[in-house]
Automatic annotation (TrEMBL):
This is Orotidine 5'-phosphate decarboxylase. HAMAP family: OMPdecase_type2. SMART domains: OMPdecase. NCBIfam families: pyrF_sub2. Pathway: Pyrimidine metabolism; UMP biosynthesis via de novo pathway; UMP from orotate: step 2/2. It comes from Metallococcus carri. Belongs to the OMP decarboxylase family. Type 2 subfamily. One of its GO terms (biological process) is 'de novo' UMP biosynthetic process.
Length: 305
């Protein structure tokens, strides 16, 4: 009797842990990458792309653009990254399109990373986080990008809400723009670069997690020379952080170049492309072909463990 109830408690506990685990962002991402490969496809409705697709440069054109992206991306890639700026520029109507886009991808079981690069003092950060993380959030994504340059600790409200709700956070570390080094390569009193300190803080958060922790890092696909010069490849490989690597295609990075640049960390990289894929639109089958081709190139260059 006693042993039966202890066995059933063990089974219940195992089930609860397994259920919680499958709801964690890192676990969901791992499943998606296993199924679709590591490509993250971006939705960046630049004005030039709206024009090229024959759409009006307003919330209506934006809505048609985003709907077409959902049709092309859903069920074809591990992760889709809408860039909030291109929606917010159209005000409330643009934000409504963003909400509808995130909901449609969720309905299709495709993970979303909302690129909002939020960063503020902790109390304000909590409000930013509640806009996007957790099921109560009006503009809910599976993960968001955040900026740690007000100090890593200022991100705590977002990291804590993500942990509580099973969502993820991607922390900027080494960005793809040339100006980033001015801040990210600077060294603190301990001799470490800012980028290295951010990687260390994320590694601490991901301790004990599976292949992907819930806290990712953003490391531009074009930063190969910096990764080598600053000696960061081993630290990235040990971080358990999904490594969002924007810059594939339009910014000059290639899938093979990303594999070389990240070396031992290559198995954690999510190469990210927006304009290079979107240039294939507006024709839906051409857009789908571009997604499939890019996903194939990325999967071949970055074999999964
Ligand atoms: O956080 C990002 O996504 C990001 C970080 C970075 O270092 N560089 C970078 O380009 N990005 C974003 O990634 C996307 C790159 O778009 P494409 O250059 O068109 O592929 C844009 O949405 C950028 O805002």
């Amino acid at each position: 009797m006693c042993s039966t109830s202890s066995a059933s408690r063990t089974i219940t506990r195992r089930w609860t842990v397994a259920q919680a685990d499958s709801q964690r962002f890192g676990a969901r991402l791992e499943e998606a990458v296993d199924q679709f490969g590591p490509l993250c496809a971006g939705i960046d409705p630049h004005e030039a792309l709206l024009d090229a697709w024959g759409l009006s440069v307003d919330a209506e054109g934006l809505g048609e653009f985003a709907d077409r992206c959902v049709e092309a991306y859903a069920g074809r890639v591990a992760l889709v990254k809408p860039q909030a700026a291109f929606f917010e520029r159209f005000g409330a109507a643009g934000v409504a399109v963003l909400e509808r886009t995130l909901d449609a991808l969720r309905e299709a079981d495709t993970l979303t990373l909302l690129d909002v690069k939020r960063g503020d003092i902790g109390s304000t950060m909590a409000a930013y986080a509640s806009a996007h993380l957790g099921p109560q959030a009006p503009t809910h994504a599976d993960a968001i990008t955040v900026s740690p340059f007000l100090g890593f600790g200022s991100l705590d409200p977002a990291l804590d809400l993500a942990e509580a709700s099973g969502d993820g956070v991607f922390v900027l570390a080494l960005t793809s723009n040339p100006e980033g080094g001015q801040v990210q390569h600077a060294r603190g009193d301990d001799g470490r670069t800012v980028a290295e300190s951010i990687i260390a803080a994320v590694t601490e958060r991901n301790a004990g997690e599976g292949r992907f922790g819930d806290t990712g890092l953003v490391v531009g696909a074009t930063t190969g020379k910096d990764i080598a010069d600053l000696g960061l490849a081993e630290a990235l490989a040990a971080s358990r952080a999904p490594l969002l690597a924007p810059g594939l295609g339009a910014q000059g990075a290639t899938a093979d170049g990303i594999a070389r640049a990240f070396g031992p960390a290559a198995g954690l990289v999510l190469p990210t492309s927006s304009r290079a894929i979107l240039a294939a639109g507006p024709d839906l089958s051409a857009l789908r072909d571009a997604v499939t081709r890019t996903a194939g190139e990325v999967a071949a260059a970055l074999p999964q463990p």
